[in-house]
Amino acid sequence: MSQNTVSRAGGKYGLSSKEKRDPMGIAILALNKLGQSPLLDKLKMRKQAEEIIFQSTRGGFKVAAAASRTFSRKGKKGAPGTTVPKAQAKGLFDLTPTEDEQMLVDVVSEFAAEAVRPVAAEANEAAATPQDVLAATLEIGLPILGVSAELGGIAEERSAVAGTLVHEALSKGDMGIAVAALAPGAVATALSLWGTDEQQKTYLPEFTEAANVPAAALALTEPAVLFDVFQPSTTAVRQGDKLVLNGVKSFVPRGAEAELFIIGASLEGKNVLVLVEASTDGIRIEADPAMGLKAASLTKVHLRDVTVDADAILGATDGSTYTEAVRYSRLAWCALALGTGQAVLDYVVPYVKTREAFGEPIAHRQAVAFMVANIAIELQAMRLVTYKAASRIARGVDASREVALARKICADKGMQIGLDGVQLLGGHGFTKEHPVERWYRDLRAIGILEGGVLV
Amino acid sequence: MIYLETPKKHRALVDQVHQVAMNMLRPVSRKYDLAEHEYPKELDMLAAMADGLDQSGASEGAGATGVRRSADDDTSNKNGSNMASALSVLEMCWGDTGLTLAMPRQGLGNSAIASVATDAQLEKFKGTWASMAITEPSFGSDSSAITTTAKKDGDAYVLNGEKIFVTSGERSDSIVVWATLDKSLGKAAIKSFVVTKDMPGVKVERLEHKLGIRASDTAVITFTDVRVPAENLLGNPEINVQEGFAGAMATFDNTRPLVAAMAVGCARASLDLTRDLLAQAGVEIDYDKAATLQHAAAAKFLQLEADWEAAHLLTLQAAWMADNKKPNSLEASMSKAKAGRVGSDVTLSCVELCAGIGYSEAELLEKWARDSKILDIFEGTQQIQQLIVARRVLGLSSSELK
């Protein structure tokens, strides 16, 4: 605490606490800071485009949350909400999606190829998903995929499989954009799964009108080494009929524009989800740029004595809703890994067939061909384990084991696919001339990030 | 609708086979591992039971009753004999892989006959115990390099050559032998013949001493001027250069998922016991807690189980595709590649996790770690499966990607 923050090297810039900075090092650091100063921008010493990147990623902006709409209270206080029925199965092993699911996948796949992939590199640089792309995802109905038809959504039954397929299809375009586009849907799905009548009627109508969908985010991750999502340091404390929240949530998609958050917190020793409107006093948003997922405009959400009504708790107070949310969210990340993994495979196949070395395509060598084969094998392996978990969730059967296994294999093999994807392109894979370096960075998120997306 | 559980209609079968594996195979598992080449007489009763099941139709191809593809216009989702075979082989190998391979009348040769024989041949070879003879001393994976010859002589073929690695070669009463009608015509000239042990010129030369699956005998067999009736040739006797090797290799699309199922079964034996032993040692697997926050042994176990789950589902996928008449060469090879390496990783890692108990003959973990190795070799090695997958995914021919 008493250490000078400049001379204390540890804990910053990836240095261990054992490192000591000598005077020359401090001078270099100062130069570096000047190089980052907003002053340069005011002097128009940078190009316009760089300025945007600067402010959204490097500047570490800290702002009050988005000036947002007021969600006027509707519905019956405390009355149970409307839920969709569980999916029913015939009991036959089957890998064919339903017709509805297939139609949805076709639409989203086309959108991912035509509208998402072409802007992915630019969105990565700008650290934001283009507004017209986001608007288009609302037209497709992505946020209301998990919302019951009765509440204006499109779900006839628990839509975990459809959600999984959509996350996969969109992520094939770009994982960062997929996270940006699917984040409001995570909140809407959570509301339709666990919301009371009042919570559903207050918030969900805002999601079901395409022109009016608020940015919203499910915030579960915290910035901690060995972070355990089941031991959040964010707390909710009861004060009369109010709850007071304190803590920091990290990697919150599009937090700067979000109008509604679902915050994971510990309440009386149990984990709960709390609905917090962005206009509430005490919320501060900070840019939280990471290795990848730039297009998701990740943020930290600081909560300081944020006070909400006690009935802002979403779902059960015994920890069960929180646990379910963690599982459904982890599965959504698995689905995202599938899409990005497929993108890698589809990209490296033509590359290794046309890239020549020693007089023939490198694909003619087993060392190269076997890497591609293993990408294909492990990708399908990840897909089947993920689908099985999704199908169990849709049917309302316990899926804790299946989600854990899907998360493990998608984290391990997904990263391997990203790694091999870059390797197969050699030095070219290391440059931004090709998207594989971005996919490499995105795939590292699997198994680490909690919340944000949910099926 | 996506549903990846054991089919409801097959659960009774799975339970039944599991009981057999637990109560009949496990008690003699170590006995025949130690007494290599001794005939496991306990299997006779079991085989009689399996025959009964086959005839009643109740098992839907629980053993080597074949994986025939008949014409059928019905396009509704099916879980049929391929699925049933994979599930039951899996359970049997959970009991003991060597003993499963040694089951009378359930040989790979039986699978081949059941899959490609004409109705007349099916009737003729009913009740036989057929082993499969492909490999020769001069080649392994490259089946097109066959040197065993079959020369047409009147109403018979005369076979000459030497076959190795014939599973149940000594105990079986017939052998499906791969031989070439004319070496100069390449793969298309390779045909398979049902050779019975009573034919003059058939000689079991010796048995191999092996790393694992010791309950199953592996023979070297020589064929010297063996006269085989022409009607014992399986499939089309014509040499169709256009069709090439495809006909003979098609059997693999059906048998590879079965070998994958063996690896999945063997690996599950290791996982089941290791989970239990770890719990006794105070390490419980927590599915919600991140692997990095758990005991290193639990984290390792999660990785193994995740890979196991994947191998299991890839295997069921390949069988499901066969049942639904979808071309499955790619998926069959994927399942074999994944299950083969997962079988080794799981069984070897479980030995490591259980340390002194794992390595000791007091438990069966060390045995499963030896048994599993062959499953990444026979019916196409890991590398052959990768080659097949790579050619398919990359769209390259065997001359482009060697």
UniProtKB/TrEMBL annotation, chain A:
Span of domain Acyl-CoA dehydrogenase/oxidase N-terminal: 98-208
Domain Acyl-CoA oxidase/dehydrogenase middle: 217-306
Domain of life: Bacteria
Pfam families linked to this entry: Acyl-CoA_dh_1, Acyl-CoA_dh_M, Acyl-CoA_dh_N
Domain Acyl-CoA dehydrogenase/oxidase C-terminal: start-end pairs: 324-451
KW Amino-acid biosynthesis (keyword) present: no
UniProt keyword terms in alphabetical order: FAD, Flavoprotein, Oxidoreductase
Family: Belongs to the acyl-CoA dehydrogenase family.
Record-given protein name: Acyl-CoA dehydrogenase
TrEMBL record, chain B:
SUPFAM superfamilies from the UniProt entry: Acyl-CoA dehydrogenase C-terminal domain-like, Acyl-CoA dehydrogenase NM domain-like
Protein name in UniProt: Acyl-CoA dehydrogenase
Cofactor dependency: FAD
Domain Acyl-CoA oxidase/dehydrogenase middle: 131-226
Similarity comment: Belongs to the acyl-CoA dehydrogenase family.
Keyword vocabulary terms for this entry: FAD, Flavoprotein, Oxidoreductase
Pfam families in the record: Acyl-CoA_dh_1, Acyl-CoA_dh_M, Acyl-CoA_dh_N
Gene name of this polypeptide: acadM
UniProt keyword Chloroplast, yes or no: no
